[in-house]
Specification:
alpha/beta; D-Maltodextrin-Binding Protein, domain 2; 2 domains; 45% helix
């Protein structure tokens, strides 16, 4: 969305940042950069370990601790997220629901399901199946039949990845000794989650939409939802503000991505992997002074900007208290799978997502094929960081 709006490329920006840092130019004291697009700036020693900048109060509430804890490797933190840059909230994933369709088909109130610990993947699946194509259109294929098919959910291409995270699974985890390992390689639960998502998203009554926002002909992921042809939409929080700016009058609300089952104790909310994060280049001559300034600005973002952001993000036609309650749950449950940010699993994640949508249960073979490669990437990365800390 940002790239289309401002004709701006995230990889292109990351490459320009790399060129500046590699040249030794000290023109920037702070840079917000998408680490996943250029992770070598860490292993090449071009960023300060933020834990060594004493004026940064990284444990305070104005820093996104649930996210930053996921970034750490061996007590090293080279980039961080906080309330100065609200993209970490803007890019949090959620489930939008169409209030008109919820009322029309007398479906359970999603807010109540969340409050009563009943908002699970099974509930979302069964609700989608119960309403899909109630008007008996001859085909679920977008653009065929009489053009009024009703879908359970309009699914962005990245939705499988996000639901895997929301179910509590990670590609890479940290063991009790602080060592990272390829967790998906030996996880029966990961396979079970992927299989259930395949049963859900490969069902023809759920639309595999394009990544375009409102493209009618290409089934842009927002289009069916705002035209009352999908009950649910999986998307980033910023989608709500985008639709309001476009003048859509659809009554909708948001809830967190569902838990895998009733045994899951908490919600997990993923954010985008190309998040712009705070870094201090090693060319900065006064890191402690910069730490003081950025920490103060991040504090003000938390106290002054974030409340107004809530007001701008709340959705028309719904109870503000309920929306705010859900936004709090989403905000407090944000986190990351470190594999995405350090570029350890892009090929595998793409394969798993494609298999989920296409109904091909080849998850075990895909994971096995990548097992050695991902393990080597992790080992090499940790080794290079170890050299930096000596």
């Amino acid at each position: 969305m940002y790239e289309q709006q401002w004709n701006w490329s995230i990889p292109g920006y990351a490459n320009e940042v790399y060129k500046v840092l590699a040249s030794g130019d000290d023109m920037y004291d702070v840079i917000y950069v998408p680490i996943n697009a250029q992770p070598s700036i860490i292993t090449e020693g071009r960023l300060y370990n933020l834990e060594n900048i004493r004026t940064l109060q990284l444990e305070k509430d104005w820093w996104d601790n649930s996210i930053n804890n996921g970034y750490r490797i061996a007590d090293n933190l080279y980039f961080a997220s906080g309330s100065l840059m609200l993209q970490s909230f803007d890019s949090a994933w959620a489930i939008f629901f169409n209030q008109k369709l919820i009322n029309e088909y007398r479906l359970d109130n999603p807010y109540d399901l969340v409050r009563n610990d009943g908002w699970t993947l099974d509930v979302l699946m069964s609700t989608c199946r119960s309403v899909a194509n109630v008007n008996s259109s001859p085909s679920f294929e977008w653009g065929t039949g009489d053009g009024d098919q009703l879908y359970g959910i309009s699914a962005h291409p990245n939705l499988p990845d996000k639901l895997i995270y929301a179910s509590g699974e990670r590609y890479v985890k940290e063991d009790s000794d602080g060592k990272f390992y390829f967790a998906a390689a030996d996880s029966e639960r990961f396979i079970n989650v992927a299989t259930k998502l395949m049963d859900f998203l490969s069902y023809e009554g759920n639309l595999r939409a394009s990544s375009e926002e409102l493209g009618k002909d290409g089934a842009g992921y927002m289009y069916p939802f705002v035209n009352d042809r999908a009950v649910f939409l999986g998307a980033e929080i910023k989608t709500g503000r985008f639709l309001k700016q476009k003048g859509y009058e659809t009554e909708y609300g948001i809830v967190p991505l569902p838990k895998y089952d009733a045994n899951q104790k908490e919600y997990y909310t993923p954010i985008v992997e190309n998040l712009l994060v705070f870094t201090v280049p090693t060319t900065c001559k006064n890191p402690e002074e910069i730490g003081t300034v950025i920490d103060a600005m991040t504090y003000l973002g938390y106290t002054d900007v974030l409340p107004e952001y809530y007001n701008q993000t709340l959705f028309r036609g719904l109870n503000n208290d309920e929306d705010r309650e859900m936004l709090d749950i989403i905000s407090n449950s944000r986190g990351v799978d470190i594999a995405y940010f350090y570029g350890w699993n892009p090929d595998l994640a793409w394969k798993i997502g494609n298999s989920i949508f296409s109904g091909q249960p080849d998850f075990s073979s895909s994971i096995a094929a990548e097992k050695e490669s991902i393990a080597l990437k992790i080992e090499d990365w940790v080794s290079q960081l170890g050299k930096l800390s000596k």
